Amino acid sequence: MNLLDDFLVRAILAGLGVVLAAAPLGCFVVWRRMAYFGDATAHAAILGVALALSFNVSIFAGVLALALIMALTVSNLSGRGFAMDTLLGVTAHSSLAFGLVAVSFVPGVRVDLMAYLFGDILAVSKGDLAVIWTGAALVLALLYWRWSALLTTTLNPDLAIASGLSPKREQMVLSVALALVVAVAIKVVGTLLIAAMLLIPAASARSFARTPERMALIATGIGALSVLGGIEAAFAFDTPTGPTIVCIAALIFALANLARLLRPQTR
Amino acid sequence: MSLVSLDSISLRLGGRQVLDHVSLTLEPGEIVTIVGPNGSGKSTLLKVIIGALHPESGRINRQKGLKIGYVPQKLHIDPTLPLTVRRFLSLPNRVSDEAAHAALDDAGAGHLCNHQMTDLSGGQFQRVLLARALLTEPELLILDEATQGLDQPGSADFYAQVEALRRDKGCAVLMVSHELHVVMAASDRVVCLNGHVCCHGAPEHVASAPEYRALFGTGTHGALALYRHDHNHDHCDLDHDHEAHHGQQVHMHDHSHDRTHGDSQDHPHDHGETA
Q1: Domain edges within chain A
Q2: Are strands B57-62 and B140-144 parallel, antiparallel or unpaired?
Q3: Which spans of this chain does the record mark as coiled coil (chain A) (predicted)?
Q4: What is the bridge-based pairing of β-strands B189-194 and B196-201?
């Protein structure tokens, strides 16, 4: 019997695939203080789902397109009159609302919205796995290629410009990577919890890391642990899998910070 | 060919004319210092030169492939970003351990290699920034009050390093500095900026002015003679902290900070033109 025939194996592989891309990208989300940026992009995905269903194209394509539009819009609008958090709040929640309304117009199809809001990792197919791992590989390649430039831009845009880099271009790279992660993660944790998978492992890793690279690695490890633990726990306690994964990640975050509090010298 | 040439650059920021028809050229290997009161557009001018800000009018030409080393006035590092000094030196381009250690030793920061950037004191941080800027072996080094927060030996070491870099590699240096005694000693040219270029010239030229001579005896304060130029197009909102600081015996005039004070109204007093 093929190993991939087991839905539990597929679920674990799907989760690990998402974590592989989300954890390093999440580090940039934390460093650049764009937590709500992730939220806005993720919420736009619901609108993408609705549009994809009405125009009968693949959900992945619809979500990717909308997430990309949202990410680019927000990064271009920033610094033009409104404070960033206001702008993100408006776009995130209005696109979620429009998405929910739009889904109700989709004729004939009974759409299980819960599956898109919270994901359904246990229903991941072999096709989904291919999409997830391709997306994750793309994001990782993008981050690896631009790593040094992204880091310099994150540190200080003027410093980056003086070194011949373009902060605008690096912001674009991050936007594209974010849209990709949202598009591949929607099946696994759903739109409401994608931001959690970006943020929580990265935030937990901060206590243990001395260099940016180490932080990205540790975040990936913590993310992987959350996926394995979450699927295990969901199976044992018969709880929804996506939220359980996030719960485990949150517990690790709490423990990591407790450990730091007890040993304040280690940074 | 000039490294950078600015031709009549103008720029407004937030409705205020920060740069007004500024022209400037930088030749290879020369040390040029920009002086001017707070808010006179010094940092803005540096940002235009590195390309972080774009002028509304005027032309800027940079030599093709010009390598710029830049030390910003301040650099905030988010506490969520773990970064050792060693790692910082390799941004954006990786440098060898030997080069990194040598640069840190030169900057008097050799023992800081494995410290977190966020744990450094102001002076230590500045030393590391300088080490990084020098590591890239730039053709043009741009320093925005780079020695701010350094102690006296640190500051002296730093200028010695800049001088050596210019001598050995022919690197040009453009800096903003408030340490005017150093400016007088180390610069080939001094540019006084107050939105527009008020005056510029060799520091010796400036130093030979009688007003400057008269004041030079008072040590560093003497260098304030640089500011003794025509203020009749004074910008009302400028912060004349130098004048305020050194009193009326340096500037034998009374600056009115009245906001209704228009550009067209000449100050009814005489200033020594020094350059």
Answers
A1: 7-190
A2: unpaired
A3: none
A4: antiparallel
CB pairs under 8 A between A and B: 73
Tokens of B27: 């030749």
Report the distance separating Cα A22 and Cα B105, nearest Å.
39
Domain boundaries, chain B: 1-67+138-219, 74-137
CATH of B1-67+138-219 given 2.70.70.10, 3.40.50.720, 3.40.50.300, 3.30.420.310: 3.40.50.300
Kindly report the pTM of this predicted structure: 0.80
Say which of A30, A152, A158 has its CB closest to residue B92: A152
**In chain B, what residues touch A148 (CB-CB under 8 Å)?**
90-94
ipTM of the complex: 0.82
Residue B84: which of A31, A154, A210 has the nearest Cβ?
Answer: A210
Residue found under tokens 């000449």:
B266
Among candidates B144, B167, B150, which has minimal Cα distance to B35?
Answer: B144
Over residues B225-246, the pLDDT tens digits come to 444 444 444 443 444 444 434 4
The whole-angstrom separation of Cα B43 and Cα B145 is 9
